[in-house]
């Protein structure tokens, strides 16, 4: 059984303009599935639908075989602990009025009674924050600082620590390195790959950067104008039967 499955998802704006067209895919446990496409093609809308921020118009979303689309917030809440997100702008993800420690602990304080940690230990607030910071290769001294005191790369690592704090099954990574410089991008991608292997978390890695998607993913989907036009194993990227749009992306990649 797939961990997260989308079946024939359709979504339109209130104007009636379609943004997702017949989108289907399956994400397996521990897998990194890449989704690449140009800005405005519907990638972030799909992410918001998977996170329950937006409702789909048609189709189905299943987590471990259980339909989760169309649920009320109360009924959806038990599934939120399984699906976390790391987004493009880490500054927007961290409350500027909270210390890094308090931001890291927030998901656990929301869901701790429903979470059984396997890789971290919640002995006390300070020790738990230290473990999370160590997991993302940040010094424990940052726990008592505020977001504005951290660099962009440090803030994104902190949002990753926040996402893994309740050891979710899935993390939606929506352009997680887009706001970072080249060196920070490479370091964060390497960190994410190590965490996936260590914690057994599955990723949906969304990006306009085919090189990053290819480096991170075991399988790749290509989205154009709201539709998945290609879906293949990583090693098949350069095959001649790739969709014409995929071939355009590959030409830029090379």
UniProtKB/TrEMBL annotation:
The UniProt keywords, alphabetically, are:
ATP-binding, Nucleotide-binding, Transport
Q: Does the keyword Signal apply?
A: no
Domain named ABC transporter: residues? 4-250
- SUPFAM superfamilies assigned to the protein according to its UniProt record, in alphabetical order: P-loop containing nucleoside triphosphate hydrolases
Q: Name one GO biological process term.
A: transmembrane transport
GO molecular function list: ATP binding; ATP hydrolysis activity
Does the UniProt entry include the keyword Aminoacyl-tRNA synthetase? no
**Family in the record:** Belongs to the ABC transporter superfamily.
The record, for PANTHER family, names: D,D-DIPEPTIDE TRANSPORT ATP-BINDING PROTEIN DDPF-RELATED, TRANSPORT ATP-BINDING PROTEIN
Can you name this protein? Peptide/nickel transport system ATP-binding protein
């Amino acid at each position: 059984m797939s961990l997260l499955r989308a079946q024939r998802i359709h979504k339109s704006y209130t104007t009636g303009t379609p943004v997702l067209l017949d989108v289907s895919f399956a994400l397996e446990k521990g897998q990194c599935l890449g989704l690449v496409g140009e800005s405005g093609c519907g990638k972030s809308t799909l992410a918001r639908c998977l996170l329950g921020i937006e409702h789909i118009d048609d189709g189905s979303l299943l987590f471990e075989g259980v339909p989760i689309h169309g649920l009320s917030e109360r009924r959806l809440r038990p599934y939120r602990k399984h699906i976390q997100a790391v987004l493009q702008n880490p500054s927007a993800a961290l409350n500027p009025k909270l210390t890094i420690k308090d931001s890291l602990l927030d998901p656990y304080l929301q869901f701790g009674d429903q979470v059984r940690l396997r890789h971290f230990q919640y002995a006390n607030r300070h020790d738990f924050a230290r473990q999370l910071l160590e997991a993302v290769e940040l010094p424990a001294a940052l726990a008592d600082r505020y977001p504005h005191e951290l660099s962009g790369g440090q803030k994104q690592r902190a949002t990753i620590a926040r996402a893994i704090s309740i050891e979710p099954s899935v993390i939606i990574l929506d352009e997680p390195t887009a706001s970072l410089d080249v060196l920070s991008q490479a370091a964060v991608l390497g960190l994410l790959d190590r965490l996936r292997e260590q914690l057994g978390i599955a990723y949906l890695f969304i990006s306009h950067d085919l090189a990053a998607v290819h480096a991170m993913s075991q399988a790749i989907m290509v989205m154009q104008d709201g539709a998945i036009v290609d879906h293949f194993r990583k090693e098949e990227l350069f095959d001649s039967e790739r969709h014409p749009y995929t071939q355009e992306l590959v030409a830029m990649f090379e």
